[in-house]
Amino acid sequence: MSLFLTIPREGQAVVREKMSRFLAFAIPVTSVEEAKEAIALYTNEYHDARHVCWAYMIGADRLTYLSSDNGEPSGTAGKPILGQINSLGLTDVVVIVVRYFGGIKLGTPGLIAAYRQAAREALDDAGMVEGREMTSLSCTFPYQAMNPVMSLIKGYQSTDPVTIADKSFDNTCSVTLSLPLDLLDELSGRLDAISGTSVDRPGTKH
Hints:
Elements: E1 3-6, E2 11-17, E3 20-28, H1 32-45, E4 51-58, E5 64-68, H2 78-87, E6 93-100, H3 107-126, E7 129-132, E8 134-142, H4 146-157, E9 163-168, E10 172-180, H5 184-192, E11 198-205
Antiparallel strand pairs: 1-7, 2-3, 3-6, 4-5, 4-6, 8-10, 8-11, 9-10
Helix pairs in contact: 2-3
C-alpha cells in the first residue's frame, strides 16, 4: 500500500524573537500548483511584511520540493523550514513563515532557530495523518451495464476514498474515478470483468 504522512488541516503559530514576529502557516496541498497558489495568496495578504519565506514537499515519493529565503540571508529561512517538514517525514504540505522585522537583527543562528521553531509549531498545530497515494481511471460501458458498474463502485465507496470525478450516461456511458493507487489493479480487473466495459488508466497523481 502506498502510504505517506501529511497534515489533515491548516496549522498556525506565532513566534516572537527580539521584537520580530514570525507568523507561520502549515497548509495541506496536493500539487506544486496548489503550493504556489498558497504562497502567492499569503505573499499578497502579508505584502507589508519584510519577508515571506516558505518551503514545500509534494508527492508520496517526497522527491518534489523547493524552498525560498525571500531576501533573508541564504540558508537561514527556507532550509530550516524544509528541515522541519523532513524531520517529521511529511509530504503534500507547504509551510509559509511571514516575518515582521522588529528592528533588532537576529544574526544567522537566531534566524535559523526562529524559522525552525515557527515552522515546527505550525506543523504541530496542524497534526499528522496517514495518506494514500491516489490515481485515476476511466471506464466506458454500454447503458445495459450501468447497474453492475455503479453497484461495484458504490461497494468500494462504502469503505475507501473512491470518488466519481466525472460521469456521462447515454447510449455509451463513462465514469472517471479517483481512487487509492493500491486499489487500481483490483478495481480495474473487476470492472473489466463486466461485459462490454473498457478501462483506461490515465496515470497517477499525489
